[in-house]
Queue: 4 jobs
Job 1
Amino acid sequence: MKGLQKIVFALAAIISIFLYNNSFAACIGSSPEWTSTADFNSVRSCVVKAKMGDHIIISGNATWTKTLALTKGLTLIGSGNPVITSSVAVFYWKPSPEAQAAGDKLSISGFTFDGNGSNFRGYGPIRVSNSSDSNYANLIDKNNTISNTYAGDHKPQLAALIYAVAASKSR
């Protein structure tokens, strides 16, 4: 019986360590450069910690079920072409008044956005605010790929739509 108790205790300890290590986001670094795994919580952690103009290097693949709102200018760089699978917009760029006043830009490059057979709920992988108080985009979207979306043969048009919305709102 004591042997069984030891095994149960060891398993509980291993599970606790696993849960503890995975409950914190994998964001390391300091301003102006951060590194993150591609999971939503890790990227969000870096975005929260970063200052306007910082770079966040993201690696690995992940599936997201939420959209990450970005209100300050950052450079998000995919290292090794990470794949983010999502049926919702991955990033929502709605610059704060401070970011607009500073002329901040959001730059996103080096990712594959996998629509998981959807159309990112009609927004594409990068949604740009269209509120009347935010007639500002300053978005740089380069070297990104859109795949597995029901836009099918219209993927180039979907990518162009992202650029067109951003360009129409740029200063």
Job 2
Amino acid sequence: MSEEPVIKRRNIIYPRIELRTGHLELILPNDADEKQILEKYAGWIDEKQQQIDKIERESQNLSLSPRTKEEYASLIKELAGKKTGRPVKIQMRKMKSKWASCSPNGTITVNTLGQNLPDNYVQYIISHEILHLTHRKHDALFLAALEKEFPDMAQLEKDLAGYWFRLNKEI
């Protein structure tokens, strides 16, 4: 393991291991033995860290497209309007673990980190969330519809993982 983990203790039953931003974070029950948890999951943690390191190296080749929050909001509203044919409520905020989300009432919340992504990635993210207006879960129908619109979906997802780790370190 390349760096010391961040340990957080909570009133929970089961431990959680997170590498969402490339840094190891252990969320442990108040009475858990952190050394025991680290030893038990050392192989898994090392494997995941190697995967993240590879993604981060490859992400250096991805181009960024910085824009202002106003430009980003305008692009999102334009893309969402084209997809739905009606106004969609859009919120922007810094999110810890995802690019965007769609609430049951149709509000799309987008991560402000996305304002640094090239347009085609923003389009993919918005299309993904708008699709949740008709398909709540990532089931076979959802994935088929998304892949029909974005045949390169697997590459987009891989690149977005790279952007995620890169932008969380740089911004």
Job 3
Amino acid sequence: MRDRGMIDSRYAYATRLIILRRNVDVIASQAPIRPTGWMVVVESPFFVSLGSYILGVALVLVIMPILSIALVLYFGRHLRRSVVQPLAVLNQRVNQLTRGDFSHWMSFATISTSSVEIAELATNFQRMQMAIRSRQVDLQASEARFREMAELLPEMLFELDNERKITYANR
């Protein structure tokens, strides 16, 4: 028997790794019985003793990445549903408003979100959309009154652009 362990005589108990003639690694623990001078030795095959530890480490190495990926996918889907999609709808409507497209009235109440901040942002966009639409209607009515008044003037009235081209004439 070849001994790779080390016994410390200061302690009553010691553990060491022993290789038997069969080339089987074991963990041995010994305890002296002082009145008789006997030594009690308990041996256990190394891989059997550490089997549960090795199994636990292997499970952690396999389960942790899978669990991490599952959590990332879950929170990514939740984030996309509650933040990214509502912001994409808001961005789409802002682009329509920027182009002056009021033909597609969009109710921001249809945006489903669990975020209070995004819901408030959607409400503010709704108010802005209504205010812009109201100002647009008022501007069109004012422009119609101006054109009607300009058409009724007995004198000729015209408008030029920067290149001195006529853009409006009442006759």
Job 4
Amino acid sequence: MRKSADDFGAQIAEERAMNAIIEGSTFEIPKSLIKASSEEHYRNAIRRLLHAHTPMDQIRSQEEELLKESEADAIRDIKHVVALNEIGEAEGIEVTDEDFEQEMLSSAQRMGVDINVLGDYINEDEERRSTYEDRIFRAKAMKLILDNAIVTEKKVSREELEKDAEAESKD
């Protein structure tokens, strides 16, 4: 239970740090990128609703709201990725073979597969390997941000934490 609360707290810290960074930044995001990402978010939202056995008429009645939320989520995600990439590049962050091996080990353990099988799978496709490297790069950039952030810890109840997380996700 403690680990879950710590993970949740770390997630909130990351979200707040990124919001603080992108809040003061100006981004010119190509409309085509927003559209493509927004459509992907929308499809994922529909999949989640269908998986939860939400009736189609209810999904249709929420369509306008889902489209707006999907666009807002897409813009936020694009800004997060751009900010992390820019910070990583400015700070000279590099993904080493050791970083990659550690990520593969962690992923293999999480998925319950042999590390050699996962390594072969990732390395057989350059795009797949690049996706892993990008994820590691952004994780290292986020770690750099949090290592240099002024973070204050305070004890809160689970209800307060959930309320804060819900409010953060709506922003």
